[in-house]
């Protein structure tokens, strides 16, 4: 086993935790988790979600990091190398290819949405959204997304920022970004929680009750499947990110403890986001929603009507921008690492090349709300929706399921034991989870999602 990756190493376990948590913390924590929690049983949903994190999320994080730290290469080369060392077919490197491709597709879509977020930082700071009502907030968002030039400009700016960080490498680029952006993200989120407590009055308790009261009657089988899917998707599993970041992880750091810390940080951000959002929604008699409607219509109304709303609304969108950046750099890193290993191109050239391709693919998503609004691809979905469906509903769960099976059934048990440094009993339990429980659960979510 190589002691260091050719791409560099994290300077400490804390940096790895921040980087991995930064990859996991993204738009889904802020615009999806609070809403699906509130609508599917509140505290009851949270309990099921935490159980799914423990039985699906954390074990697959551990599996990816074990593979990454043992291989010390990109996911593609790591899967091939560990297959050879375990006396198995190198066909398993297809899983690495799938993961790199998935991250690439998601980045092309993500960059467009992140561009919207950056645009709203400016719009909120300038006072354009001060005092908006539902009609004007909706019209403002629709008008912005229909302005292809503006959407394209912000998409371009975000992609340039992402590629600049990736081009600087592990130590001088990604580590520096997460070292400052992640603490800033938690600081800003804490400020917004305090703001929510101080300004929403009785609505704060109402918002907490909406999100966290135990409504077991709403906890349907569909809600359980939703919790399983959220637990899987929220941790950036299935696209090789954790494997790639694991390749840069110090040898002495405990993988199980580190994986648990990542899950705790990721879940904390999602819960704190709900604590911020729902009291604001109830304080302004607004209708709760999920997705773009919550982020770009409902919250601007709330901030626009409250004391200090311009300042704290700007803070909120800066916070979301930070989350978007730390996620986006992780999406392209697996492909970037492989190209650096495979070719003689420097990392800046590889980053520029991949960024240009992702940017071009992202044009389809950027134009889905204007020029190509009527273009339909998968099942009547537009380009933006089709790319999101392909990556999140098909490629990610397949990748996560295969990584679990590869770790549990293909990789030599001595490799897993060496990397995890746990007792035989703990190792046996972990292998049972990644061999049976986790892949079965992901498969069920995968099938049920396709049948919906």
Please, could you describe this protein's structure?
The protein contains 19 helices and no strands. It is mainly α. It has one domain: Amino acid/polyamine transporter I. α6 crosses α8 (about 150-165), α6 (about 95-125) packs across α17 (about 385-410) and α8 crosses α9. The model has no long low-confidence stretch (mean pLDDT about 90).
Write a concise keyword list for the protein shown above.
single chain, 19 helices, globular, 452 residues, mainly alpha
Kindly estimate the percentage of residues that lie in beta strands according to DSSP: under 5%
> How would you characterize the largest beta sheet?
none
Q: Choose one word for the global shape.
A: globular
- Whole-angstrom Rg: 21 Å
Oligomeric state of the chains in view = single chain
N- to C-terminal separation? 44 Å
Q: Note the total helix count.
A: 19
Instruction: Provide the structure class.
Output: mainly alpha
Low-confidence stretches: none
What fold name stands as the CATH topology? Amino acid/polyamine transporter I
Share of helical residues: over 70%
Identify the CATH class.
Mainly Alpha
Write the CATH architecture name: Up-down Bundle
In brief:
This protein has 452 residues and is mainly alpha-helical. 78% of the residues lie in helices and 0% in strands. It is globular, with a radius of gyration of 21 Å.
């Amino acid at each position: 086993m190589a002691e260091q990756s050719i791409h560099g190493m994290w300077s400490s376990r804390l940096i790895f935790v921040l980087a991995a948590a930064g990859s996991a913390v993204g738009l889904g924590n802020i615009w999806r988790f609070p809403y699906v929690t509130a609508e599917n049983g509140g505290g009851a949903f949270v309990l099921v979600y935490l159980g799914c994190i423990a039985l699906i999320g954390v074990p697959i994080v551990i599996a990816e990091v074990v593979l990454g730290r043992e291989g010390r290469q990109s996911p593609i080369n790591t899967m091939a190398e560990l297959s050879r060392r375990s006396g198995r077919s190198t066909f398993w490197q297809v899983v690495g290819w799938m993961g790199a491709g998935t991250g690439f597709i998601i980045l092309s879509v993500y960059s467009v949405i992140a561009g919207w977020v950056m645009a709203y930082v400016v719009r909120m700071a300038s006072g354009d959204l001060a005092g908006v009502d539902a009609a004007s907030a909706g019209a403002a968002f629709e008008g912005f997304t229909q302005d292809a030039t503006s959407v394209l400009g912000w998409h371009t700016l975000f992609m340039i920022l992402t590629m600049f960080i990736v081009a600087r490498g592990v130590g001088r680029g990604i580590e520096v970004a997460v070292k400052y952006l992640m603490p800033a993200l938690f600081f800003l989120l804490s400020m917004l929680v305090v703001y929510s407590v101080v300004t929403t009055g009785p609505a704060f308790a109402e918002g907490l009750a909406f999100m966290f009261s135990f409504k077991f009657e709403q906890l349907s089988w569909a809600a359980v499947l939703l919790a399983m899917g959220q637990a899987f998707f929220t941790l950036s599993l299935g696209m090789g990110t954790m494997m790639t970041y694991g390749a840069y992880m110090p040898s002495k750091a405990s993988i199980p403890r580190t994986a648990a810390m990542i899950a705790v940080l990721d879940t904390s951000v999602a819960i704190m986001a709900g604590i911020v959002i729902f009291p604001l929604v109830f304080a302004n008699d607004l209708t709760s929603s999920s997705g773009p409607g919550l982020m770009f219509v409902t919250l601007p109304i709330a901030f626009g009507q409250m004391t200090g709303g311009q300042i704290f609304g700007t803070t909120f969108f800066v916070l979301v921008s930070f989350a978007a950046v730390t996620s986006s750099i992780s999406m392209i890193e697996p492909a970037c690492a492989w190209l650096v290993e495979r070719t003689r191109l420097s990392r800046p050239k590889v980053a520029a090349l991949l960024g240009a391709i992702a940017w071009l693919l992202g044009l389809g998503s950027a134009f889905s709300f204007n020029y190509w609004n009527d273009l339909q691809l998968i099942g009547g979905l537009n380009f933006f929706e089709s790319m999101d469906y392909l990556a999140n509903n098909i490629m990610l769960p397949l990748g996560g399921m295969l990584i679990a099976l590869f770790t549990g059934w293909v990789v030599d048990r001595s490799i897993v034991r060496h990397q995890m440094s746990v007792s035989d009993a703990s190792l046996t339990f972990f292998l049972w989870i990644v061999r049976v429980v986790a892949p079965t659960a992901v498969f069920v979510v995968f099938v049920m999602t396709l049948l919906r």
